[in-house]
Target: TIGR00725 family protein
Amino acid sequence: MTEPSQRLLIAVVGSASNSLPESQKQLALEVGQQVVDSGCRLICGGMGGVMMYAAQGAHQSAHYCPGDVIGVLPSYQKTEANPFIDIALPTGLGVARNAVLMAACDAVVALDGGSGTLSEIALAWQMQKPIACIGDQGWHQRLNSLTLDQRRDDTICVLDSLAELQQFLSQLHDREHRAYSGIQLSGVGRKPSESLRTLEHYLEQSFSEQCHDYTFELLGQGSEGVVFTCGPTIFKVFYRSDFTMLLFTHLSQISQRLKAAASHDYSPVPRFDVHKGEYLVVSYPRFESVPYRGGEQPCMVNFLRAMHRAGVCLSNVKAENFRTDANGNLVFIDIGRDLMPFSDVMFLSMCKRAFLTVYFSQHPAFKTMCSYTNDHEGFMPVTDHDGNDLSAEQVMNLFGGFYQEVRRGCE
Model:
């Protein structure tokens, strides 16, 4: 058991409603118990709903000790805490107490929830706290496996079961928890310290059989990591960081989904393997291909149908992340945080961005158009820029036909 002074504080956040469905009550109980079972302490907002049932679950753990359940209250009154809170911390800050809660914790587990949970997730993201979501309702279903911005290299972790929660909590014990030093602009200060030769040497040692008698060739270098080719194999080495290593569970799940769909000849994403050691590495067989420049609607429709079959979505569709293989199929090659498990909401979002990639990928306002579709139904900015003579209605009709064609192949 971890020494008392070293035990991690896990924030459990979610709906404060006092009329939760039975399934949510039971999930909150089980999550709270597992937090303490894992050797951590539980910290929450101290009130009702998910907070109360998680606190009650913590008390049910065989490892529970008095003081393991902490509540950060929005009011000045300790007496407003739910009956399972051991240590009540009144703040008098109202909803601003969410920032105190996120500052105090080491990681966050979100169970369903609404706008309050969303604010906590956003604060935890800015404060560099690992975030996991579990359940089948609420805001986090729209954020599954996403990066909220470019200030971090990991994703919001998707947990399909309590067993995956146990693995998430176990990984937290193996990482270094640095003190938060203030909000920085997206992408600022994230320069990798590894040299290319260091990464090549790691691949040589870890994949000696695959790399024997071959030399490494650099294919690309980005914010997540470096891509090499070595003989018949492509390797993507992720830069070493505490957050990136949490991608292992996420990418392993995506890899399993792609391999489960292996009965189809065409895989829209290379069927990759995931390796976790000193570095996180994905690898897949090299294939003949040429760059994709946009257009080619039938190829994109076929790609989206294949993604639907595989149960995988993308949060960032753009032409430069695709290659066209020898059979004329589109293949997404930027394996990393943009890949996520399937959901209807994310599939529709992916189709919108894919539509824009087909018709407007060379337009100077392409990024603005894609950003607009994240929060709006239509494509109004498309009609606001020079070089486009389509009305908003015409663009919507064009997308409607595109989306219907995609869906016909998914039924």
Q: What stands out?
A: Confidence is low (pLDDT under 50) at residues 184-191. The chain has three domains: 4-173, 196-285, 291-408. The first helix runs from residue 22 to 37. The domain at 196-285 is CATH 3.30.200.20 (Phosphorylase Kinase; domain 1).
